[in-house]
Amino acid sequence: MKRILEVQKQLVPDLLDVMKKRYTILHHIMISGVIGRRTLAVSLNITERVLRGEVDFLKSQGLLEIESNGMRITPAGQLLLDQIEPMIKEVFELTDLESQIRTTYGLSQVIIVPGDSDRSFFTKKELGRTAATILRKLVTNGDVVSVTGGSTIAEVANHMSSSAPIKEAWFVPARGGLGESVELQANTVASQMAQRIGGQYRLLHVPDDLGEEAYQSLLQEPSVKEIVSFVRNCRIVVHGIGDAMVMAKRRKVGEATISMLQNVGAEAEAFGYYFDNNGHVVHKMMTLGLQLEDIQETEVVIGVAGGQSKGKAIAAFLKFGHEDILVTDEAAALEIIKYAP
């Protein structure tokens, strides 16, 4: 297959460009469920006239249908996407990039989706869909799955489903609330994942950042102590990775802390820990929930993050060395390779 694609690039390069374009259109429609032509044109950064021609072709092939409220993929279109998915990675030249990142950072699996989450909400949705597919294959009855919050992991929750309920799977927040939108908090994400696959969940109702006195006091509360122990004994962790300065400002930390993080070269944040460019921990927030030693002992750790702006942060966290599976996008992957050790 790879050799055939190389020949096509040399003899009929336009063919691959057309394939990429039509795949991207069909894939965006699939992710959206139903979408209007104007909205899709804006998302793909193409004119409505160009999109109309491609949509007419795809409709003539029976791959999509046009309704009063927008365009929808047909069963034939869904089948086609499923069939060509392995080949698409070669078309977008992502297979070699996945292998390079996997080998360089010592990961067991790397999945790269086309695009840039910074520029396209559809790419972020695809990150969530892809990570949800991986997670569904891993979760079994009796598992405890610990999840962080944030918009990307919320997309994972949005795409979770199961043909049969996994009634004895538990979903828990990796840590307390971040003080952001309720729908993006780890508690909400954990409960949504559980509901979507017919599992169970437990919540951790404590602030994200605590003072020393409050931290020690809460640890003595039997109910808090019990749920924290439950969280820390998870088999699977699903987490996001953030840019250190962006996350510090979102958490409204003081100027002194921000200055300190800049001075020590903080690049990435995950689980309330800040990492420098070499993957070393340079700062830790006082938070209840998963601790770094728990991550090191967890059987499966899945990182889900994308966007060119996060590439350097993702690379920094990967150098910490305890990630198993990475789901990212093309733009971030290219940056991750730039900052390889």
Outline the structure in words:
With 341 residues, this protein is an alpha/beta fold. It has two domains: 80 residues, Winged helix-like DNA-binding domain superfamily/Winged helix DNA-binding domain (Arc Repressor Mutant, subunit A, Orthogonal Bundle), CATH 1.10.10.10; 244 residues, Rossmann fold. It has 16 helices and 13 strands. The strands form three sheets. A seven-stranded parallel beta sheet has the order 3-13-12-7-4-5-6, sandwiched between helices. Helix 15 packs across helix 16. The longest helix is centred in the first third of the chain and has 20 residues. The model has no long low-confidence stretch (mean pLDDT 88).
Supply the key terms.
16 helices, 341 residues, alpha/beta, CggR_N, DNA-binding, transcription regulation, Arc Repressor Mutant, subunit A, Rossmann fold, DNA binding, 2 domains, WH-like_DNA-bd_sf, globular
SSE order and pairing:
Layout: H1 2-11, H2 13-32, H3 37-44, H4 48-60, E1 64-67, E2 70-73, H5 75-91, H6 95-105, E3 109-113, H7 121-138, E4 144-147, H8 151-158, E5 170-173, H9 186-197, E6 200-201, H10 212-219, H11 222-232, E7 236-239, E8 242-243, H12 244-250, H13 255-263, E9 266-270, E10 273-276, E11 281-284, H14 292-297, E12 300-304, H15 311-318, E13 325-329, H16 330-338
Helix pairs in contact: 1-2, 2-5, 6-16, 7-8, 8-9, 12-13, 15-16
